[in-house]
Write a structure and sequence with these properties.
308 residues, five-stranded parallel beta sheet, 2 domains, Rossmann fold, single chain, alpha/beta, globular
Length: 308
């Protein structure tokens, strides 16, 4: 029977919680991805790193990856900006990935240190570990002067090996508080642009690409919004309990314990997914008396699941 990976022309794969967790690869991830023969593009909300940096990181984990096989939210922001009528300098706030993406898209890039002497037509705001209050102030000044404002992503938090740190969404919120409005556009998941850019680069319609992720509120919601089927792997943020209570906009097409299931027979994947779908159907139809039994059944199927 056809495996899950063979049903799609390509994969759009998240990184943190799917491929690696902190400095170490997720169990089975490298082997499973290395065995995929169709194109794999790593689509990440991480705006601070350049694609070549991400590719080098994956190489150190043992994955073969070229720079062209990485799409970042900074690139999606530059892609979005290129589809507008913005002409002029763009203020790049964030790590090196932001300015690099803008320059490669043909924009004149201004850094915060030089912004006071420039006429800024747009601001692209992404995460960077060295972003300062002064950088955020320059973004606010430019937006208040009429610049178009694009956020690479709105992740409120950033998991680190020391705990949870403020993510780009928190920095965007600080600027929004100052200027009294939200960004004009957000490029990263759960908004569609990152996935749509990935599909465009692959030369495929969204329906031909399977999104793979570990978070319902970014990876899966973004896939639903962009028209991609999705696989949620339970190796990162969200567990089975979270999937079972997910609203329709955050429901994955498939659910699996880990990436080995990309290569499992279709019947094995369907058993897991059907058990989850039965819970969702009962929720949607108001069959409250059946939910406890169906949730227990889904947990039982998951506990006995093996990729074969």
């Amino acid at each position: 029977m056809t495996s899950l990976v063979d049903r799609y022309a390509a994969l759009a794969c998240d990184l943190d919680g799917v491929v690696y967790r902190g400095p170490a690869p997720v169990d089975h991830a490298v082997e499973a991805l290395d065995a995929v023969r169709s194109p794999v593009v790593y689509a990440t909300n991480n705006a601070s790193r350049r694609p070549r940096d991400v590719a080098a990181h994956l190489g150190r984990l043992g994955l073969r990856c070229r720079e062209a096989e990485v799409t970042t939210s900074s690139e999606a922001a530059a892609w979005l900006l290129g589809r507008t009528d913005v002409h002029g300098a763009v203020l790049a706030v964030g790590g090196p990935g932001v300015g690099t993406a803008l320059a490669e898209a043909g924009f004149e890039v201004v850094l915060p240190a030089d912004a006071s002497d420039a006429e800024v037509a747009a601001v692209v705001q992404g995460y960077g570990p060295d972003v300062t209050a002064s950088d955020l102030a320059e973004a606010a000044y430019a937006v208040q002067s009429g610049a178009r404002w694009v956020a690479t992503n709105a992740d409120a938090t950033l998991p680190t090996d020391r705990g949870v740190a403020p993510g780009n969404g928190s920095l965007v919120a600080a600027v929004a508080r100052a200027v009294g409005r939200d960004p004009d556009d957000i490029a990263g998941k759960p908004q569609p642009p990152l996935y749509l850019l990935t599909a465009e680069r692959l030369g495929l319609s969204p329906s031909g690409v399977l999104a793979v992720g570990d978070r319902l509120d970014t990876d899966i919601e973004g896939a639903v919004a962009a028209g991609l089927d999705s696989l949620l792997v339970l190796t990162g943020v969200d567990d089975l309990d979270a999937v079972l209570v997910a609203p329709p906009a955050r429901r994955p097409t498939f659910v699996a314990p880990d990436l080995r299931w990309l290569h499992a027979p279709g019947s094995a994947v369907e058993r897991l997914t059907d058990a989850v779908r039965a819970v969702h159907d009962a929720q949607d139809q108001g069959r409250e008396d059946q939910l406890e039994r169906l949730r227990a059944a889904a947990g039982d199927v998951m506990s006995r699941a093996h990729p074969g």
